[in-house]
Design a protein that fits this description.
single chain, Nucleotidyltransferase, domain 5, 46% helix
Amino acid sequence: MIVAGIDIGTNTVRLLVADLKKHPSPSQGPACRTGGPVLTRLHDDRRITRLGEGTLTTGRLQPRAMARTLSALTDFKSAMDRYPIEAVVCAGTSAVRETANGLAFTRQIRQEVGLDVEVISGAEEARRTLLGVEQAVGEAPGTLLVIDIGGGSTELILKSEGHRTQPMTMTTPLGVVKLTEQYLRSDPPSDEDQRRLFSIIETTLRPVWMTFGEVKNPVIVGCAGTVTTLAAMELGMAVYDPGRVQNLRMTLEQVEKWFKKLASLRLAERRGIAGLEPGREDLIVAGTAILMTVLRLAGAKEWIVSDAGLREGLLVDWWEHH
């Protein structure tokens, strides 16, 4: 059956059209080990619309940001119409759930584009992201820590031997759009900008890490735009290839190297880096700082990149319920 998933994020809107089938054999692939479907990609797309632009100071979605997002969704709807789609699962995350006019915007999407948007909580976003990640990488032996760095929030999902059925999830307000607008005021970021950035990230994440308790040698998987962009830059990819990014292993040292380089460059200079997606050149510094801080708190030297995330999780969740 063909199903479409749309993730309306604070920075990026993502579409995935996929054919979902039951695994023919219990030994084939990571999705089967987690009980999920075989997912064959038919069409995917993503657009940086910066829906959360200006919401930190106004508490409302801004007209131009909504117009950009509506335009992207209209294009997505046209692309979906080429397939015999059985269901569309469309989720709104941080920017939609946290703004005064977020629900009104979902009604506008329904009227103008014909898509029903489910506004999901941070905990639900984390749960479905975990489904998407595990569909692609499989269940990790021991402890799995998933880091989902978004435009409006960052989710941490901890799944260990002792929490197989109920992973621990934490959602934080550490979104790259918010952090960039609030703390990175110089171009390139000044030493003071960087100090304030790392201070708020660590102050926010340290209590979360203490809540998780003693976590020994977790398998760390990062997903969403910051981590896939870091992978693309490390690989020097002129054209993004999700197949090369999925399950790529990177080190803390590589992340630190990229932060130092990115923070030393002006916006115009960052645009010349192969693999850095246009529209993300200002946000990548804050996102990399979040990832660095999590890796350091975990004492991790290595981590795994996942191109799969919430979009895939929306489809897996639909499969489980239907």
